[in-house]
Amino acid sequence: MTTTPKDLKKEIADICKACGNDRSRLMDIVRDVQEKFGCVSDEAINLIASEVSVHRVEVESVVSFYAFLSKDQKGNFVIRVCDDIIDRQAGSDSIISAFEKELGINCGETTADGKFTLEKTPCIGMCDQAPAIMINDEIVTNLTADKAGQIISTLKESGDPKKLVAEPGDGNNGNPLVNSMVMNNIHQKGEIVFSEYVSGAALKEALSSSPKEVIRNVKAASLRGRGGAGFPTGMKWDFTRAAEGDKKAIICNADEGEPGTFKDRAILTECPDMVFEGMTIAGYAIGADTGILYLRGEYAYLRKFLEEKLAKRRENGLLGKNISPKKRLGGLLKSKSAFDFDIRIQMGAGAYVCGEETALISSCEGSRGDPKTRPPFPAQKGYLGLPTCVNNVETLACVVKIIEKGAAWFAARGSAGSKGTKVLSISGDCEKPGVYELPFGTTVSEVLEKTGAKDTAAVQMGGPSGTLVAANDFGRKICYDDLATGGSIMVFSRDRNLLEVVDYFMEFFIEESCGYCTPCRVGNVLLKDTLEKIINGKGLTTDISNLESLGKTVKLASRCGLGQTSANPILTSLQNFRTLYENLVKTDETGMNPSFDISKALKDSEKIAERKSVVYTTE
Amino acid sequence: MADITFKIDNVDIKGKPGQTIMEAADAAGIYIPRLCTYEGLQPHGSCRVCTVFVNGRAQAACTQPIAEGITVDNSSEEVQQIRKDIIEMLFVEGNHYCMFCEKSGNCELQALAYRLGVLAPKYPYLFPKRDIDASHKDIFIDRNRCVLCGRCVRASQDIDGKNVFEFVDRGPDKRVAVNSEAKLSDTEIDVTDKAVEVCPVGALLKKRVGYAVPIGERLYDNKPIGSEIENKNQSS
């Protein structure tokens, strides 16, 4: 990977040119540079800045934000070990040690020959086949420590991570453009998302009615956002349609990064056409000509396959200029107005916060994934200033079924305030982790029974930003009015240390905070430190009340959904598992705060002084 | 357009359409504590010190527009607790040594702590390792005292037209970087830039002008921060 400065200049100029030297495509530019050179060096940053006519610090700002981009040189193969709590419980630590031993480096380092970099990464959406790792864009699942040696020698011999796929996974994972060992693990299909579907039929139906009628239908079906927040989809479309502007945009949020969520992985693998059709219908309804699928960097292995699906849709007249499905489907099209609409894929680069819709828009615009100030809301002023609607993958798949089967049919499924089905991704201590499409209103115990979970102590509903549910609440229902979830359900048996789980979740939020606002940037660190003080047996009863009041401040004062939910692991575990905390803390009788550990504090001084303290002994 | 009427702590306020809660409150002589906001710069909404409850919901007053009939809580114990927590967070996040900081007495963070009654933080200091940049002949950066308010970033972009500063990294590692590979001296900054003037703390300081005004006679030594806004009301 030796490149002379002249080559670098030319190659970067080419990459920038391919993106039209467009500042708003900066994400694609820096991703391409990273892929080609293994880093976005200071020199590369200067070159990009001059090609795209921006200040170099703006480029640096973007590069430094995303976990998959770096100024430092990475190896030809970047091994990223998934470090979420499910993978940890499945033994990811032993996987890391095995690779460390095999490569002779520590996690976070690159081998001297520049071939391998070993890193940890938060949830890659493979909790149902943990432990899992990424090698560049390739996914390796169900790993054991003894396989590390074989993986490294295969990579050394072949130079191709694809060679690690001995047998491809089921369904479209076996498609030559995917060719991945990832398994779908769809254990239960439902009537809406994982159901029979004819490409183009729903779009044809939609085009035969007016955009307003389409929106009316989606409203009548009471469709709510499947990403977790549950905002009524029809209303979102209405706002965007009503906003002033000739051009509008629809973005499909495929950045599922909530630990324990992998349902969009299965939907994008098995029903991509349906998702793109839902986007096209949404485009027609709101009057958009621009569609973007924001695909999380971890799902790059699906990119070529999805690009091909888009190309096919263009060929079939389902995307592009003058969309009219009649070309292929023939017959009785009564389209009132053919319209122009196309979709591009925007790759993410490792940032959970980009799942927040305004951060996602920032990222699509080629900036740091900082959430934006609201108002203005995306529906008024979103992607490049256009009125923009951001919908979840599953939401858009639901739209297709609503158009096809009718609003009444859709609304007859599910529970009172939550119509339809929910695709759930279930992982952790159960026999059959995987994807389940179940009607809203299903109880936690029903889910546990279906997945073969035994001796369950707690269920994390909705991922770290959701609720830690105790056994006496397993009768509660999965729906927007009771236990809401974007899809993540993690099961923890009685053998698990729940405070360790909570501690991990806090670590995750600290890692993934964009750092824009004070409460989230600092508050989460203080929450975690206080929690660890309690876990380490140094906590006082006042520390529990500190956790509660600080947690409340972080929840209320944070600027976006990340910070507003990041204290939930602590707040909901305090609510439902308070004795775990109370058993560890002492009553404050002396007025002394034992948080200061003198022997630990002395270590630095001893190092500088190059001698031991004569008063205190450190271990 | 017609005035918008709403309430802050049960006082009737009249504002103009398009104003933020903070702008309307300032005009009415009601002080809402703030740190990242600076007159003449786009509101940033990042420090969250100006958190108020609007119809019971926490919002940043610097970015939230006024609306007819809303009730704004700017003084309850709950609101004050949030602000105190945030000021504490900013103190423990950086390395702030008021006793030998040139900015002492003119420092908005320090003044806010006094005004809100934060005397000693209840959370442990995080003692981060941060760097300083004294490369420039007239200006130095001490990131130990930076509160990431983004005033210098916005002033350099929007007023000086130079983009000398920008945020890099994320989460607890987030920091202000300069538009060069390493040093401030390699940027276009000039000591007369607005960006140098707007820092609320001692993170961006001019060289060779230290202690021109003695301690005891500085901006907030004898009157609390915010009194300039509150006094406006009394004099009108």
Q: What labels describe this entry?
A:
heterodimer; A: 619 residues; alpha/beta; Glutaredoxin; Rossmann fold; 6 domains; six-stranded mixed beta sheet; five-stranded mixed beta sheet; 25 helices; 42% helix; B: 236 residues; alpha+beta; Ubiquitin-like (UB roll); Alpha-Beta Plaits; 2 domains
The tally of domains of chain B stands at 2
How are strands sequenced across the largest beta sheet of chain B?
Answer: 2-1-5-3-4
SSE run of chain B: EEHEEEHHEEHEEHEH
Strand ordering within the main sheet of chain A = 5-14-13-17-15-16
Q: Summarize model confidence as the mean pLDDT of chain B.
A: 95
Number of strands of chain B: 10
CATH homologous superfamily designation of the largest domain in chain A = NADH-ubiquinone oxidoreductase 51kDa subunit
Residue share in helix of chain A = 40-55%
Most extensive interface = A-B, 41 and 43 residues
Task: Please count the beta strands of chain A (DSSP E, at least 2 residues each).
Answer: 17
Question: What is the average per-residue confidence, as pLDDT of chain A, rounded to a whole number?
Answer: 94
End-to-end distance of chain A, in Å?
45 Å
Specify the number of helices of chain A: 25
